[in-house]
From TrEMBL:
Belongs to the FliP/MopC/SpaP family. It is found in: Bacterial flagellum basal body; Cell membrane. It comes from Mangrovicoccus algicola. This is Flagellar biosynthetic protein FliP. The chain crosses the membrane at residues 45-69, 178-203, 215-236.
């Protein structure tokens, strides 16, 4: 490319932002248009999508279960983390498609059309996810968090803010259940490790690492048992 043309394009790109801002302000210095403000709010909301997926959906549970399963088999980097995250995201969308559709139709779409204020749109968007989290949160964890916050801040438990408490209790509930599922996943593979170790010791092959010998047996067991289908089916049926 011509160097002069490159310099001209760079200058135009640097000045494009201020020129658009001046157009939005107008000749009389009026405030930014509602459309531009809506764009800024949308970009800000998109930056919070990863946090939202971790805190308010079943992504955390799925990802922990898949990671524990990989560790139980004895595979360190296969499937890679990117593959596990992709599978967990696909399962999250499959499980929570009704909540996503309701949030879009009730809150996000009307806000983008300009027919709904930001506060009301946020409330309507959060409503289906509130219901989802409430249905999958252990009551004991919610009570413990509410009483702990109330005791530390010297105020009645009923005055504790509901949404932050619900998100925290939901996350703890998901992690607790994921660890419980992980325990039942590890046990059969641990039995295979113990059997292989006992056989190697009886043959006098104590210098051979049992984990290396048991790996193909654990993989074969997982494949024959149709492990991926059973695991994903169990995760979906839980919700």
């Amino acid at each position: 490319m011509n160097p002069r043309l490159s310099v001209c394009l760079l200058v135009l790109a640097l000045h494009a932002g201020p020129l658009r801002a001046q157009e939005a302000l107008g000749a009389a210095g009026t405030p930014l248009s509602g459309e531009l403000l809506s764009t800024f709010v949308t970009i800000g909301m998109l930056s919070l999508v990863p946090v939202f997926l971790i805190c308010c959906t079943c992504l955390t549970f799925s990802l922990i279960v898949f990671s524990i399963c990989r560790q139980a088999i004895g595979l360190q980097q296969s499937p890679p983390n990117l593959v596990l995250i992709s599978i967990s995201l696909a399962l999250t969308y499959f499980v929570m498609a009704p909540e996503f559709e309701t949030a879009w139709a009730a809150g996000i779409a009307p806000f983008l059309d300009g027919s709904l204020a930001l506060a009301e749109a946020a409330e309507r968007t959060a409503a289906p996810f509130r219901a989802f989290m409430a249905a999958h949160t252990e009551e004991g964890i919610t009570r413990m968090l509410r009483e702990t916050v109330a005791r530390n801040q010297d105020r009645p438990p009923e005055s504790v803010s509901d949404f932050p408490l619900m998100v925290t209790a939901f996350l703890l509930s998901e992690i607790s259940r994921a660890f419980l599922v992980g325990f039942f996943l590890i046990v059969p593979f641990l039995v295979i490790d113990l059997v292989v170790a006992a056989i190697l010791m009886s043959m006098g092959m104590m210098m051979v690492p049992p984990a290396v010998v048991s790996l193909p047996f654990k993989l074969a067991f997982f494949v024959v048992a149709n492990g991926w289908a059973m695991l994903t089916g169990s995760i979906i049926s839980r919700y």
